[in-house]
Amino acid sequence: MCGIFGYIGKKENAAEIILEGLKRLEYRGYDSWGVAVVPTEDPNKNNKIVVKKRIGKIGDANVDELPTATIGFGHTRWATHGGVTQKNAHPHLDCTKTIALIHNGIIENYDSLKKDLVSTSHRFISETDSEVAVHLIEEYLKKEAFEKSVQKAFLEFHGLNALIALHAREKKLIAVRNGSPLVVGFGNGENYIASDAAALLPHTKDVYFLEDNDMVVVSDTDVELYNVVTGKKKRITKQKLAWDVSSSELGAYPHFMLKEIHEQPGLIVDISISGISSAKKLAGIIKKAYGTYFVGCGTAAYACIAASYLFSKIAKHHINWAVGSEFSYHLDFLTNKSLVVALSQSGETMDILESIKAAKQRGARIASLVNVLGSTLYRESDYPFLIGAGPEKGVASTKAFIAKLSHLILTAYALKGAVSKGSLLLKKTSKAGKQIVTNEYVLKLKKLVQRIKNASDIYVIGRGISYPASLEAALKIKEISYIHAEGLAAGELKHGPLALVEKGTPCIVYAPLDETFGANLAGAMEMRARGGYIIGISPKPHEVFDYYLPIEDVGEASIIPGVMVAQLLAYYLTIEKGYDPDKPRNLAKSVTVK
Ligand code: M6R
């Protein structure tokens, strides 16, 4: 969940290059940050590494006081072991201050390793599991070369980890991965390592995504790859990134979330054309499978639920769905004829990776709809499909959700043998989306924000495909505005939640013009009768709505404009409350721990 960025080359402003890289990665973790460099000038000849660490977001931080250097790395932290303090921030140093280390993951056996190291007089500064790694390398270095020391230390760790180590006397960065993502960027006379390829875009598009058990030794002119377990050298197969630098920059927008919401209409129309061939392929795979399971986490899980309605309605095809963290508890019946379709923006969500591992052990085949090329899910899938949303940096997932839905709609139509109809529907949906990102619509939303900003709870209801829309709308509202929001199947209201509706409680009602219209309105009436303030999202106004947010009727794709309205509402609520929508508290973009 942490951001990692390393540089080695000829430029003497390594600290600045690293800080810029970290700023691009801050969405991965943002409770504290740090940079370590090996000074070019070392007047005292003491070979000490210089470190700057701070708690809080990087924001406008600088590294002006750090010395000139051509090698170093930095880290943005999302705390696991040890509170958010400067001491717990990475990089960590060994006792001699000549080895530095940054780490992502959890060293599960850190406690016993620490006890041994303390008994051999290593002094620990932090409460982290990560610091164990740097002292263990220091210990091995008494007898071994640097590479061997890193390798031996890494092999002692239990759990899923990625780290980079550097030594003040060695002109190299050594990185190892088992679980958490790392990617090497190849420059000219300089090289990079990052936890996310998007951070490399300003420097290079030539990359190598580390696989599990890969260890790389990176100098300014060379990158050597080894298997960390066997020590055997491996061949590097480079990949080319297709994303533009501008796609990962804010441009004129104040926040990535707003930028990403605005990109959606264009994205839908792109997918209506570029997605056809993959939709046909995926439909063919689903057709052949004996039972298909869709799995995802958070927003991606809601796309899986939406898939179950879309496939049923459009293609008359049954699929199952599960949230990633629960999947392992009900996959016992999977066989070698089963298909698991994993949905993930990052392709690094640990609950998904564990799910597909368990499914593979039962012989199931794995397809994926994933946004990040070279991610673990992409590589581990038998049939990987890129959703092509471009870098998504807002922690609240928006365009990746809409991209997944667009691919799912096309795939459902392809399964029905009517992919062109799906493509036309998406073009219409793109136009419907454009009407929501207009100034006029935003004014309407801002007016509503004034009415509901002090609410302590918001309920969102819908039936059919509006049920996952309700879940997603509530998730967007709660995760960034911190207002408690609950998405409900409208029919469940009277089985309990209605007890919570009081005078003035904001209740959002999805009412698309499908077979659920009347029943959704009935739910609205029930809430209104208890004093609820009814906000209707529908192609058709109705007297039960206290506040009406119009969307165009785009048939089975109406979930797309419906959710876009909720994304923007969540965004403006958050702005009004003075919070940062891109970096909500306690969360990180890529959830690489269980
Ligand atoms: O990268 P993934 O799509 O696998 O991420 C899954 C969830 O962690 C993610 O959707 C999360 O729920 C977002 N914060 C929702 O906005």
TrEMBL record:
Keywords: Aminotransferase, Glutamine amidotransferase, Membrane, Repeat, Transferase, Transmembrane, Transmembrane helix. The keyword Transmembrane applies. Residues 282-423, 448-584 form the SIS domain. It holds the Pfam family SIS. GO terms for biological process: fructose 6-phosphate metabolic process; protein N-linked glycosylation; UDP-N-acetylglucosamine metabolic process. It is an enzyme of class 2 (transferase). The keyword Repeat applies. It catalyses: D-fructose 6-phosphate + L-glutamine = D-glucosamine 6-phosphate + L-glutamate. Its EC number is 2.6.1.16. Residues 2-221 form the Glutamine amidotransferase type-2 domain. GO terms for molecular function: carbohydrate derivative binding; glutamine-fructose-6-phosphate transaminase (isomerizing) activity. The chain crosses the membrane at residues 290-311. CDD domains: GFAT (cd00714), SIS_GlmS_GlmD_1 (cd05008), SIS_GlmS_GlmD_2 (cd05009). InterPro entries: GATase_2_dom, GFAT, GFAT_N, GlmS/AgaS_SIS, GlmS/FrlB_SIS, Ntn_hydrolases_N, SIS_dom, SIS_dom_sf. NCBIfam families: glmS, PRK00331.1. This is Glutamine--fructose-6-phosphate aminotransferase [isomerizing]. It comes from Candidatus Roizmanbacteria bacterium GW2011_GWC2_41_7.
